[in-house]
Amino acid sequence: MCGIVGYTGLGFVSAEAGAVGHGAPVASERPLEVALEGLKRLEYRGYDSAGVALVGPGLEQVSFSKKAGKLGNLVADLESRPLPAATAAIGHTRWATHGGPTDTNAHPHLADGGRLAVIHNGIIENFAALRRDLSADGVPFVSDTDTEVAAQLLAKEYRASGDLTAAMAATARRLVGTFTLLAVHADDPTTVVGARHDSPLVVGLGEGENFLGSDVAAFVAHTKEALELGQDQIVTLTPTSVDVSDFDGKPAQGKRFTVDWDASAAEKGGFSSFMDKEIHDQPHAVADTLLGRTDEAGNIVLDDLRIDEAVLRAVDKIIVVACGTAAYAGHVAKYAIEHWCRIPVEVELAHEFRYRDPIVNSKTLVVAVSQSGETMDTLMAVRHAREQGAKVLAIVNTNGSTIPRESDAVLYTHAGPEIAVASTKAFLAQITAAYILGLYLAQLRGNKFPDEVAAILAELREMPRKVQTVLERSEYVRATARSMADQDKVLFLGRHVGFPVALEGALKLKELAYIHAEGFAAGELKHGPIALIDEGQPVFVIVPSPRGRDQLHSKVVSNIQEIRARGARTLVIAEDGDDEVRRYADEIFWIPQAPTLMQPLLAVVPLQIFAMALATAKGLDVDQPRNLAKSVTVE
Ligand code: AGP
């Protein structure tokens, strides 16, 4: 969950020599500017302290600043205590794991007499034993962090070898856990060394300058040419070189890619929040995820399929592993894939999956759904599945992330950067991508004729326009939300594909408005939850299409009558023309008609808007809700 930025550059030499990239290294303000700007773009990851470290020609020690709290605190400290011009910088936003969010525990952590600085993302599980050994050698510690142990270990290795890259490799070999480490040393003010194990690190390739980031948002404003580092790799960066090696010092290769979105896409684009922008991005998220998925013959093709077709034909079970919103997207997809492919689909919360001793073998296809591609629970589930012989297909939104790299196949969603911590457009894109996968399997295994696949694809291609229609109706939802700002409990009911939508609607309200919200399968109501209904209790009900699966509609209408009879305030999501539901609904949020399996892409949108509007009415930060991080990279 931490944000990491690294920079090294030759600096501006002179007006006649032009911009960055020519002549001998010259100290400037650019390293600090790039570091702070990168940290700003990484704020969405969630953090509770921040810091920067700089090195430059003639500086005996690392110069640094680090402060608990938001980036503003760091900037204020830098204004009151300016740092010298530099040639290299590392920056960090910390999400506290070992040790509270204090100035002392913030990164960077220094060692070697203040000449070495280290920043870290992840958890070092054997830090206590290492700290004991180092303390026994007289090494002093000033913080409660695992990172300081890595810094002191690196200093010890550096003093032994005099080579920061070799020292980083030696240190990395001794660490157990998950880590991305960046280090700079005053001895070599244009070099930044990084190491990664289970935690992300990507290189930004510039002209006379190079960048590092925990994701591309850190440097995409400066370059779109990137290099994805693999597991257990070290990168040594200078303004004009990028050398990759493994933890044994052998040369290694990163994977080049071009970032497919620009810095402006990560801005708010005129909306009041990233959340609002991303809810309105959803038609594009669905449309872009559908783009380029069929060949000229109309057959579905996947992005990066490293699974033999014969293996896919032999699959006899699918297990979806994911967390939070991504899990609910997987839950929606379960109904479609089982209906189209006649393969049993289990949906498992990733953090439960590997501890329940699941039945997984070479005929199991595990589908890992993740917006960030870095969720540690999901990554660990992927690893467990592969150890058990299953093939893994990743549905991920973030290019260059870890989960796709450790999967056998990838189906990227193209929702663009999702900055708000609470997921919205990624949810729709994940459902869309999972439907593409289901259609691909149905086509491959002969469950669906090409014309049937084409017909369902055509329905999917109608959805962006229909989502846009729902967005254009959002003022009524916002007004209703504002009138309910004092609510402290809201329930959500749905059946069939409406059930995971109810779960997602409840999660949005929890995350954004800090209200107790619970989603139920509507059929479960009489088995207990109906006891929660008292006078005025708001209950959202997602009503299936009256033209859809038999009985679903009538049963849900009965559920509405049951709760209304007990005083509930019914807020109904129903499709245009559904007159039957009118008499039982206190509020109706209309959505366009759509096939049963397509309805989740529409029904969830009013629930997203409701949660955002109610949170806004309460004066809450809808982009960075309390206690949450965008990417949960610790288990
Ligand atoms: C969604 O609103 C939440 N922020 C959270 O549940 C999220 O969906 C979950 O942590 C999974 O993240 P991922 O999609 O990046 O793996």
Structure, explained:
- The chain has 635 residues and is of the alpha/beta class.
- The chain starts with a strand and ends in an 18-residue tail after the last helix.
- It contains 18 helices and 25 strands.
- It has three domains: 3-8 and 29-255, Aminohydrolase, N-terminal nucleophile (Ntn) domain (Glutamine Phosphoribosylpyrophosphate, subunit 1, domain 1, 4-Layer Sandwich); 274-461, Glucose-6-phosphate isomerase like protein, domain 1 (Rossmann fold), CATH 3.40.50; 464-635, Rossmann fold, CATH 3.40.50.10490.
- An eight-stranded antiparallel beta sheet has the order 3-2-4-1-10-9-11-14, covered by helices on one side.
- Residues 14-19 have low confidence and may be disordered.
- The protein is 35% helix and 22% strand.
- Bound molecules: 2-deoxy-2-amino glucitol-6-phosphate.
